[in-house]
Amino acid sequence: MRYQFDFSSVVDYWPSFLHGTLMTLQLTVIATVVGLAIGVLCAIGRRSQVRLAQLVCGAYVEVVRNTPFLVQIFFIFFGLSSVGLRLPIFTAAILAMVVNVAAYSAEIVRAGMDSIHPGQIEAAESLGMSTPQIYWYVILRPALERVYPALTSQFILMMLSSSVTSQIAAEELTAIANTIQSDTFRSFETYIIVALLYLALSILLRIGFWGFGLVIFPRRRKLGTPL
Predict the structure, then answer these.
(1) Is the distance from CB of 21 to CB of 202 less than 8 angstroms?
(2) Cβ neighbours around 157 below 10 Å, total
(3) Closest by Cα among 212, 218, 172 to 36
(4) Which pLDDT tens digit goes with each residue over 91-108?
(5) Given 9, 27, 123, 215, which is the most exposed site by the fewest CB atoms within 10 A?
């Protein structure tokens, strides 16, 4: 059986591919920024002396990390709508991605915080630094620097997982590809293009995170430590 490749009919849909790519990038950027902020708060909560904060943050992280992303999306989009809270497709997709990436980021950041030697915290306390100052200058910033590569990998995985949002008709790259292949009956060519676009997005994000790391972590840049 010989298959004749024909990309001409698929390439004509380049505006749709571009729209899906930009939508995927938009979902990823918003989920990354908001998810990291929530993840940091959860990491602090899990290390807090307040028992309730530990339990709530711990339960959230464990539930999200031990359930499929697809189930989480369906719960937010279909489950909430069944009780009268119907969210727009884009909002539901963003919310699901934020909830997911925040839980994984929380564990990564917590691991970074746990790596800070207690002696550094005691030294900061002896200098009269306040708790917020200790968390920012002694714990959080060094912790984020140490786990930055793991965080960026998680964010790129989240970008690739955004394809699951096509199940609720979010117009990201995979959903656009599904529509194009059903119109052209050129599934092989369509998904080859989509795979290349995802690969390009992954490389673009890695370069972007690398450059951003050089800016926010000048010590590593001066020491020549890879990010």
Answers:
(1) no
(2) 14
(3) 212
(4) 999 999 999 999 999 999
(5) 215
- Asked whether residue 88 carries a pLDDT value surpassing 80, the answer given is yes
The 3-state secondary structure of 144-176, one letter per residue = HHHHHHHHHHHHHHHHHHHHHHHHHCCCCHHHH
The SS3 assignment for 127 reads coil
* Positive or negative torsion for Cα 118, 121, 123, 125: negative
- Report the first-to-last Cα separation within the chain, whole angstroms: 48
Rounded to whole angstroms, what are the CA distances from 105 to 14, 38, 94, 133?
A: 34, 8, 16, 22
Q: Where are the domains positioned within the chain?
A: 10-223
How far is Cα 43 from Cα 40, in angstroms, rounded to an integer?
5
Beta strands in the chain (DSSP E): none
Please return the burial class of 173, using the count of CB atoms within 10 Å of its CB with bins 0-12, 13-18 and 19+. Answer: buried
Q: What is the pLDDT of residue 131?
A: 82
DSSP code at position 224: T
Q: Do residues 93 and 30 make contact, with C-beta atoms less than 8 angstroms apart? A: no
pLDDT higher than 70, residue 224: no
Q: Which two tokens stand for residue 114?
A: 């746990």
Q: Given pLDDT bands bounded at 50, 70 and 90, which one contains residue 218?
A: confident
Q: Which CATH architecture has domain 10-223?
A: Orthogonal Bundle (1.10)
- With 0-12 / 13-18 / 19 or more C-beta atoms within 10 angstroms meaning exposed / middle / buried, residue 192 is middle
